[in-house]
Amino acid sequence: MTDRTADRGRWHRLLPRRLDPYTAALAGAVGLAALFPATGGRARAAETACDLAVALLFFLYGARLSTRETLAGLRRLRLHGLVLTATFVLFPLLGLATALLTPVPLTGQLQTGVLFLCLVPSTVQSSVALTGAAGGDVPAAICAGTYSSLAGLLVTPLLAAWLLDAHGALSADGLVRIGLQLLAPFLLGQVLRPCLGAFLARHRRVLTPVDRGSILLVVYTAFSAATARGSWSLAGPGALLGLLAVLLALLAAALAATALGSRLLRLDRAATIAAVLCGSQKSLANGLPMATVLFGPEAGVLALPLMAYHQLQLVTGTVLAGRWARAPAAPATERAAPGRRVPAALTGPGGPPPG
User: For helices 108-117 and 237-264, what crossing angle results, to 10°?
Assistant: First the structure.
């Protein structure tokens, strides 16, 4: 067995072979919020806990990220430019187009949720696992997801202020809250990273439950507010089927556009795999906290398109990764450099943040 085949096998073990427990937990949080929503004093306590959890989540993101290794990854400018263009230019244009071209018009909140989905940065964890399983350029995928997440801290709120304000969905103090709850903790984590690196390395197994627990709390709080406001009446069977059709069209368009862009930029096979998978995915871990901060009580239904798209991208990405892995080996000139490893400092002591 070659080293490259062994690497693919290692990454394949990271892909779900059955229902992912985290996916089941997300569905369970939505179901719990629908049946037993937090109201009154419990709702205020849940909102406070959610604010603290979001701040902790982004503090840990900042504490994990190695600035030195991130800057070192800039050498693949064409690939990173393609991913950023797909994430913050192509997707918003597609999101605006859905309001005009959707055969079955979505309800106002679901349509706004689709547009918000198109403004969210790319993911890191799932795109890295899928890129590795497909035999793609893993370090490039990590850098692309990292740059997208960093850009999203500024670009996503600014695009939301520009595009979503017309839909009446953006809180007046949303941008200020983004700065206080997301950007400030992230920067603090970066400042304290030299002091926390060894501690995070020793306790890295604890970080994943903290990350995912924070996101589950965000989901429960957001969907509790949606239940209390009666927003679920807007998400009937017809609207959900229309939403599924729109999301499938968005994913297909993103995959086709990034594949075409890779060809036009003459990226090698490994870089193409990374560009297609990173450029077509959206981060649940970044998007849900942003939705909560930007939209407040309206975040539940507005986040539904993002949660649904997250599942679609995982299923589609797993299928594509399997096809790429089974494809004939690329010519020697297109293969990634042998022995290329993922820089440990780039992924951070606790590994990449969840997608």
Answer: 20
